[in-house]
Amino acid sequence: MPKVTQLSVNGRRGKRPLAGTKRLLRWLASRTYSCTPLATIGRTVANRYAWQSPASHAAFPLRRRPLPVCQIFLYHRINDEGDPFLGGLPVKTFAAQMEYVARNFPLLTLDQVSREEFPGGHSYYIAVTFDDGYRDNFTCATPILQRFGIPATVFLATGFIDSGELPWYDQVRLAFKSSSQSYLSLRELGGPEGRLGDLPSRLWLLERTLTWLRAQPRSECLQAIDELFRKLGVSSQLQLSNQMLGWHEIRQMSKSNIVFGAHTVNHPALSQISDAELMQELGGSKRTIEDRLQLPVSHFAYPFGQSSDFTAKVKKSVPEAGFKTAVTTIRGLNDRSTDRFELRRFTPWESDWALFRMQLDWFRFQYQDVTEKERNQSEHSRETSVVES
Ligand SMILES: [Zn+2]
Prior knowledge:
CATH topology of the largest domain: TIM Barrel
Bound molecules: zinc ion
């Protein structure tokens, strides 16, 4: 599901100058960082070392990473439409990000990640993925990936390929965009309510509605969408043409360095469907891509991808359906100890090139994996118990 361009929902006057000052300080900090030798030093340090928080009680604030890590980027739409409802990273921004990573970091395929293959003895690697199967991945992103020789994996929700239909969450986005209502209440269904009068309020309520919908059992979610459309006063058949990839485009992409993974058939939250539906969503999407491309499909992406969107049973079913890896949308880095069926990803959201570079270095420098946090906590409790005894 694409992340909508971040807009401030805080309309209070007192907050605006502070937000403006903060933005200016971040801008200045990012220029100071990215336009000076600090960037080279920061990149090198962040590649090899991780920062240890005071909570870890470590003697030295830097810790050399014992294992190489891979950061998996997650993209959705790449286009210049600037639609705040459907989202999308501008093409120029995507090109600048890809040029920067291709020049400065080794890139991996998900096959290499699944084989725990980290060639060249580096400490830090990047892999690039796209979710859902938007057509602009072919028209806008593929030429850029080819220009910089970057491998990528595109996860397809196969029910929308060549169907002329938008995924259900994009239909909901379109409904919020098209509605002329000024207020929406889904209280009688247990859902959110709020104003639709201005853009920030409308986007805020849209995100709350999507979060609520995906937490409903599948049949109730579909019924709620019908009721939502009725309340918004829009047609239940909202469509936009040429939004999703077609098989002829997918075949062309697969001839370059792009691999296709499965992302279910209908893009439901897998925690909210029956066992029979789960098998159909996993196996159906895998078989369709394999039949169409005559290539094996080894990688899977959980729809929505947060830990509440897939259960332990879902996770167990993924290798049973024949997949070698599964990616989430949980933020983090991956090393050889990371569960192959719960790989973490990272959405590069900064459209400013200097902020992107600083954000990328800072993220891996300060990021502590759950297992590291647990180890720090257990080391701390061991120290504490020794002192106490
Ligand atoms: Zn998705």
